Amino acid sequence: AGMAFEAMNHAGDIKSDLLVVLNDNEMSISENVGALNNHLAQILSGKLYSTLREGGKKVLSGIPPIKELVKRTEEHIKGMVVPGTLFEELGFNYIGPVDGHDVQGLVQTLKNMRAKKGPQLLHIMTKKGHGYAPAEKDPIGWHAVPKFDPQIGTLPKIGGGCPSYSAIFGDWLCSTAAGDDKLMAITPAMREGSGMVAFSRQYPRQYFDVAIAEQHAVTFAAGLAIGGYHPVVAIYSTFLQRAYDQVIHDVAIQNLPVLFAIDRGGVVGPDGQTHQGAFDLSYLRCIPNMIIMTPSDENECRLMLHTGYHYQAGPSAVRYPRGNGTGASLSELY
């Protein structure tokens, strides 16, 4: 997202000796484009190519027009088979894509790149869950798993019988959208975790996965609200921190009716230290015009989501915990 782009733009400008490894696990960027690119990566990272490339730069350094022509010719030739034009434009020498599971080939490419001057980018292709069949079949379900027996290959069932708060949110979202085609649900790449799978299938035109771009998610919601739509931003508490400036500047100052459905509020246990939702109450309470609600059970969660959605005087937030509800009966929504 933005911070990574800013860092790469800076590195390309100051020409530091830097190696960036882009791990492309086929979940977000592009599919592997075959053996030709693996072979080409070996050539482009090799000593012969580097020697000829640097030697050519020195010879042509005193003839700027020809040097620029040769540079652009090289870029066009590489661009036909190598998806690295963006990185080259940022000042990086792009190598790849290479097979990240071919350890010997990867080691050789890294050795070739070790002595290179200036910023380098190595694009490796991997498969999420590679080497463990259950994870390969369901990479999303096997993301951030609890303790399990690898010999059995199944995840432990979460007991309790009551629906999770995420499921309550997802059900409320679907039922509300059934009567309001202006509802627009936004998630920063957390469809499964936020309970939005059913909604994304039933209402695809009202569902927006903006990828791991929390700042854009919030500003996008602000734009939708200005346009007369009813945006709901489903986001984990810890990830909303990344968009704090946008919450203040783009939503609260303009007093826009955006509903934040904040999942994983409070202590989250197995999700780990980076996912603790320990700060949301503190950083939201000091924002003018923000209404904050915290339910004690799943019925209150549903009622608060309903209230926040219909509150049009400004932004509102409902923050709820990870895990299952208490078994409270659900009352009617009016």
List keywords for this structure.
2 domains; alpha/beta; six-stranded parallel sheet; 334 residues; single chain; Rossmann fold
Named CATH topology of the largest domain: Rossmann fold
- Which series of helices and strands comes N to C? HEHHHHEHEHHEHEHEHHEHEHE
Shape: globular
Helix content: 40-55%
Work out the count of structural domains. Answer: 2
* N-to-C CA distance: 40 Å
What would the average pLDDT be, to the nearest integer? Answer: 84
Strand order of the largest sheet: 5-4-6-7-9-8
- Computed CA radius of gyration, to the nearest angstrom: 25 Å
The number of helical elements comes to 14
**Strand portion, in percent?**
5-15%
Count of DSSP strands: 9
CATH homologous superfamily caption of the largest domain: Thiamin diphosphate (ThDP)-binding fold, Pyr/PP domains
How would you sum up this structure, described in words?
The protein is of the alpha/beta class. It folds into two domains: 16-125, no CATH class; 165-319, Rossmann fold, CATH 3.40.50.970. 43% of the residues lie in helices and 14% in strands. The strands form two sheets. It has a six-stranded parallel β-sheet with strand order 5-4-6-7-9-8, with helices on both faces.
